[in-house]
Write a structure and sequence with these properties.
Helices cover 61% and strands 8% of the residues. It is mostly helical.
């Protein structure tokens, strides 16, 4: 290993030791508070949430990945993105490279991506602090999403921690400018993330509305009012609603008795 590589390894080892010292101090404070928990704030149990994000945002081809990285490099160097009094835009010099490295941990089949900070730093050959800074920049400009995660401790001590911190989940977002660039290159592109969020909100609003409809009204909404099938389902829905009302009255009557 070169002298530069030795210095980088030593610097990362020192930072890791300081991080471990902070974790130990936090754990001791938790014991004094009676929480016995050593996890970061805003952490969630690992589960379906990140899997849905991975399936939505992380399943793309190697060609799309390469084009994303190329566009991010060009965007970060664009004069229009440069900050006043700065030679660069919102991304530091190594951030596009780290963006590419994080993508290299992505599972091509299900989009899963949860590398450790140390693993990213090792593969990118940069310091841990550089990775932390790059991730913050990518999140701030809307190119990266992340979720701090925990999992239950196996066979925990009743007085000890019940959950433990695990690696962060990452997914790759598509701002409007990147969606336009990908569409120009490939003829199609993922929807911008603000549009995805709007569609999800609309779908949830419609579902909440449907949950309030009677069976008859729901049949009419799904199939219209004129078809034979719609009329049959509406008739079935009326019968279902009558039964439901009758059972509700019987329940109230039994409760009074």
């Amino acid at each position: 290993m070169s002298a530069g590589g030795n210095r980088l390894a030593a610097a990362n080892a020192a930072r890791a030791a300081r991080h471990q010292l902070r974790q130990t101090s936090s754990a001791l404070q938790g014991l004094r508070r009676g929480t016995s928990s050593d996890v970061r704030r805003n952490s969630y149990h690992a589960g379906d949430h990140e899997k849905r994000k991975w399936a939505t945002h992380n399943t793309f081809s190697a060609a799309v990945r390469n084009e994303r990285v190329r566009q991010v490099r060009a965007w970060s160097m664009s004069p229009a993105q440069k900050k006043a009094g700065s030679r660069r835009g919102p991304l530091s010099f190594r951030t596009p490279h780290i963006y590419d490295v994080i993508m290299s941990f992505r599972n091509f089949e299900n989009g899963a991506c949860f590398p450790s900070i140390k693993g990213i730093a090792r593969r990118a050959n940069v310091a841990i602090a550089t990775v932390d800074k790059a991730i913050k920049e990518l999140v701030d400009v809307g190119l990266l999403g992340k979720l701090l995660r925990t999992r239950p401790v196996e066979d925990p001590d009743p007085k000890g921690p019940q959950v433990e911190q695990i690696t962060t989940a990452y997914w790759f977002l598509v701002p409007t400018w990147l969606a336009k660039a990908l569409k120009a290159k490939f003829g199609s592109a993922p929807k911008p993330d603000d549009q995805v969020q709007r569609e999800q909100d609309d779908a949830e609003h419609v579902q909440r509305m449907l949950d309030t409809l009677s069976a008859e009204d729901l049949a009419a909404f799904r199939l219209g009012d004129q078809s034979i099938l719609a009329k049959a389902l509406a008739s079935y829905g009326r019968a279902h609603d009558r039964i439901a009302r009758f059972q509700s009255v019987e329940t109230i009557r039994d409760a009074k008795i």
